[in-house]
Amino acid sequence: xxxxxxxxxxxxxxxxxxxxxxxxxxxxxxxxxxxxxxxxxxxxxxxxxxxxxxxxxxxxxxxxxxxxxxxxxxxxxxxxxxxxxxxxxxxxxxxxxxxxxxxxxxxxxxxxxxxxxxxxxxxxxxxxxxxxxxxxxxxxxxxxxxxxxxxxxxxxxxxxxxxxxxxxxxxxxxxxxxxxxxxxxxxxxxxxxxxxxxxxxxxxxxxxxxxxxxxxxxxxxxxxxxxxxxxxxxxxxxxxxxxxxxxxxxxxxxxxxxxxxxxxxxxxxxxxxxxxxxxxxxxxxxxxxxxxxxxxxxxxxxxxxxxxxxxxxxxxxxxxxxxxxxxxxxxxxxxxxxxxxxxxxxxxxxxxxxxxxxxxxxxxxxxxxxxxxxxxxxxxxxxxxxxxxxxxxxxxxxxxxxxxxxxxxxxxxxxxxxxxxxxxxxxxxxxxxx
Length: 434
Ligand SMILES: NC(=O)c1ccc[n+]([C@@H]2O[C@H](COP(=O)([O-])OP(=O)(O)OC[C@H]3O[C@@H](n4cnc5c(N)ncnc54)[C@H](O)[C@@H]3O)[C@@H](O)[C@H]2O)c1
Description:
InterPro entries: NAD(P)-bd_dom, NAD(P)-bd_dom_sf, UXS-like. By secondary structure, the protein is of the alpha/beta class.
């Protein structure tokens, strides 16, 4: 009985295995015939010689051209697909609805503006950039495009704009002599009509405005260093007047809106600033010298080189701007680095740091070129608790690296990024490796 049962079990198992093998065999036959059909179909379709396998065909010039065209088409499709992959953004701080501000930065695609964008984005605010790209570039802020807290608007502030914001950093204006002298009337319009538009917007929505003024309001100063109480020494019809006088009007407008319309205003008198993303061709001392040294051209000093300048690194300025905006102080505040050097000294420092064999040459002095420029930052230090912290050599090193990268750049896609930690440094150790 037991034997009979064992035999029946054995018979059932053999039948099941045989059936399984039969199924597997027929499936593999179907698949392999399908594959060979596919291969044949592909060959006859793709082969230029009516179905002959490729091994038997010698490609003609036309075939190669067709293949190259096809590769190009596929590459562009691949690029499209890559663009659809969600971008990775630096980890920004999370602010609750109560603490998060909606902040407009005019001129936010420019040198200073783009660093301010980075800092405010990292702090977790919503940032709206308005720029007409006269001297600014999308590339300076493209690493934020697509982020839920960021918006970029192509707009000329000479025309009004209607948006809802809590704070306005009004930075839009060409800043370097060749740029603001290129179209002097437009420079005046941007700093007068444009400022009226921003103050008007602030009045409508109850926002606070910070005006980016300049040390140029002091003209060619007769007082050293320049405190905010100094009224300046400006030539109203000189080549720099379109900028200097327009900025002076911009300040006057701010205080008139404050007095008449109760708009909350802050005025930053910014002194020479340098750092990554400054224009290569803006004709300013630092960019000129670095570029000339890197390309092996002679470093040009206009005049004797005994005239002095003091330069602040851009992250120091950004720090001061944010502190001023969030302070209770409404009179003008100088933001600059009082560490004063002669132009000759700058030329030597850059010459040595770049380490190329360029020479230093002298040309005639420029008209209305200020002989001394050094901020008195007592007000910023006592009222805002602000003082520049980045040493000259560390900042210059970072700027040289940026210019080197720009000179070597040969593709649009090489992003102009900075590591997020770059914006968050608080101690000396943090900026030492700048
Ligand atoms: N960088 C300095 O050393 C320095 C010194 C003193 C004052 N400032 C002031 O700081 C601000 C920023 O300077 P920067 O060095 O970043 O200059 P920048 O030229 O790099 O940036 C200015 C930005 O404003 C934009 N812009 C100009 N006109 C505009 C308009 N009509 N509408 C919209 N956008 C416009 C430009 O496209 C650019 O993006 C300026 O107001 C400048 O006067 C700068």
